[in-house]
Amino acid sequence: MDSVVILCMIAKMKAIIPQPPLLQQSQTWQQALSEMVTCPHTLLTMLDLDPMTVPWQWDQGFPLRVSKSFISRMQKGNPFDPLLLQVLSTPIESQLDKAFSCDPLEESDYNPVPGLLHKYPSKVLLTFTSSCAIHCRYCFRRHFPYQSNNPGRKGWDSALDYIRSHNEIVEVILSGGDPLMANDESIKLFIQQLQNIPHIKILRIHTRLPVVIPERINHALISNLSSSRFSVVLVYHINHPNEIISSIAQGVLRLKQHNITVLNQSVLLKGVNDSLVCLKNLSISLFEAGILPYYVNLLDPVQGSKHFFVDIVKARQLQQDLRAALPGYLVPKFVQEMPHRLSKTALDLIP
Question: What stretch of H or E contains 232?
C-alpha cells in the first residue's frame, strides 16, 4: 500500500467531485485538464468504493487518466458502472491472448511519413497529438509508437508535402491521441497551412475531449473551424447514454450554428453497451443532443482488451434489433475495421 500512497501523492489530485458542469462555465478547458484524476485509489475513493475490494492495477504504460466531469457522471458505490469500466485498469488486462495484438489494424504498413496514416485512397489521418484527456481501456492505439509518430509543428511540412503530392486525397482527418488536446493557436496555424492545398475539401476531427471536458468547445476553436474554407466534421466518441450531459449538447448547438457537422461513433463493449436497451437509448440521447449516430465499431483486437469483446453473432442480433426499434436515421452503421481493406467493412458483409 505504500507505493499506492506515493503514486497518489505524485498525482496531486484532490478527491472532490466538482459541481455539475453547468455550474462551471467560467472554468477553462485547460483548468479542467489540470485537475485530471490519475490515481486509481483516488478514483475509487471518490466513488465510495473500497480500493481493497475492487480489482484494479497500476498500469504504468497506459495509466489511468480521467476528468472530474466524467467521474461526476458515474454512479457512486457501483463497481460495474459502465463509465467506470471504460477507464479503470484491472488485472485482467495483463492476460495476454494470441488473437489480440499491439497493432491490431497493422497501421505501421500505412505510415509513409511520421504522424501520417494513409490507409484509404481519398483520405489521410494525421496523429495531431499523442495525448488524450481520457485513457479508454479498449483504445486500439494504446500501444501505438507515438515517439516516432507525433510530428508536432516541426513535422507538419513532411505531412503537408505528402498530402500536396497526392491529388486523390480530398479529406484530412485529425486524430491522435486527441487532436483537440492541441491549443487553439496550433489548430489555427495548421488549418491555415492546410488551406493552401486546393484538393483538400473536408477536415474531419475525431475527438473525445468535448465529451469528458465540455468546456473544450470554446469561441476560439469554433472560430478557427468555421472561418476555414473546409466542410468541417467533428466525430465525437460516446459509448453510453450516461456520458451525455446538457453542457455537451450546448457545445454541439454552438458548433451546428456555425455549420459544423457533428457525428458520433461508439465501440461495442461487453458490460458497457452490449444491450438493445443501452444502444437504443444512446441513439435517442445523441439525437436529442444534436449528434447523429454514425458508427458502432466492433472492438479492435488490441492486446489487453479481450474482456470487452462482443462476438459477431451477438453484434448482428443487436444490429437487427436496433433496426426494428428505431427509425433508420437513428441506426448507426455496425462496422469492423480490418487491415488491408479499402474501407471499414459493414457487419452485414463479414462472413
Answer: strand 231-237
Containing 237, the helix (H) or strand (E) segment is strand 231-237
Per DSSP, the three-state class of 333 is strand
Residue 229 and residue 256 in contact, taking contact as beta carbons nearer than 8 Å: no
Beta strand pairing call for 171-175 and 202-207 = parallel
Other Cβ atoms closer than 10 A to 20: 13
Q: What is the distance between the alpha carbons of residues 302 and 296, in angstroms, rounded to a whole number?
A: 17
Residue 51 pLDDT > 80, yes or no?
yes
* Residue 62: closest CA among 92, 38, 98, 95: 38
- Residue 334 CA to residue 326 CA, distance in Å, equals 14
Report the alpha-carbon distance of residue 167 to residue 159 in Å, rounded.
Answer: 14
Residues 87 and 68: their CA atoms lie apart, in Å, by 12
Q: What are all long-range contacts of 345-349, with beta carbons under 8 Å and residues at least 24 apart? A: 347/298, 347/312, 347/315, 347/316, 347/319, 348/319
Name the residue with cell 476531427: 205
Query: Is there a contact between 225 and 194 (Cβ–Cβ < 8 Å)?
Result: no
Domain boundaries, the chain: 2-94
Which residues partner with 237 through β-bridges? 265
Please compute the mean of the pLDDT values over residues 285-306 and round it to a whole number.
Answer: 93
Please state, in angstroms and rounded to a whole number, the distance separating the CA atoms of residues 233 and 203.
Answer: 6
Q: CA triplet 64, 83, 23: central angle to 5 degrees?
A: 95
Helices 276-288 and 312-325: crossing angle in degrees, nearest 10, is: 50
Q: What is the pLDDT of residue 26?
A: 55
Instruction: Compute the distance between CA of residue 87 and CA of residue 69 in angstroms, rounded to an integer.
Output: 13
| Beta carbons of 294 and 260 less than 8 angstroms apart | no
For residue 144, the model assigns a pLDDT of 61
Hey, what's the cell of 34?
A: 489540470
